[in-house]
Amino acid sequence: VPGHPPTEPSLRGLRGCEGMLHAIAAEPWDPLHRLVLADWLEENGHAARARLIRLQEEEDRWPGTHGHAIGRLLADHGAAWREEGW
User: Fold this and answer.
1) pTM of the model
2) Alpha helix segments (H runs only) across the chain
3) pLDDT averaged over the chain?
4) Residue 64 backbone dihedrals phi, psi, to 5 degrees
5) How deeply is 15 buried, as exposed, middle or buried, from its count of CB atoms within 10 A (0-12, 13-18, 19+)?
6) Are the beta carbons of 42 and 55 closer than 8 angstroms?
7) pLDDT tens-digit series, residues 35-51
8) How many of the other CB atoms lie within 10 Å of CB of 79?
């Protein structure tokens, strides 16, 4: 499928993650794809974004456990991520 899937549109400028984004779009219910993306992000210098994805996945499984940490990451990095197209 050419182009980027609707999943994680903020990652369009980050080359190398296209296959992972397509896998997420094809099977959005499978957390494995997002966790693989988180590993890739961490390995490529985006540790905070990787942590956000992991916390979101845990929050999906255990609601109410990581809301504060997610909010803190977004407060600390959200503006920069939006500026960078994240």
Assistant:
1) 0.77
2) 18-26, 31-43, 47-61, 67-83
3) 83
4) 90, 0
5) exposed
6) no
7) 999 999 999 999 999 99
8) 10
